[in-house]
Description:
mainly alpha
Amino acid sequence: MAMKRGAGEYPICLDEIDRLISDEAISNIDESLDLRDIINSFLRSLGYEERCIFIRRYWYFNSVKEIAKGYSISESKVKISLMRTRKKLRKRLEKEGIKFE
């Protein structure tokens, strides 16, 4: 039986990102800013492995275990990479004028 994309990781991933980008923060975006362009630019600025780990988690909703197995790295390394990348994204969003409370 084929598993659907995310296999139950969807709510967990959304919770992780929600802590970073709340509805309040999104409502503070100036109309001239395009969140999609900011995130794409941010992703292009990352190193290959860091970008792939982030995309696998938040686009494909892979579990930390799946990502670790796919890259032959420890789950701890994946968690640390994700945490650091989320912090970088938050700084980038703040730099672009998105305010967090």
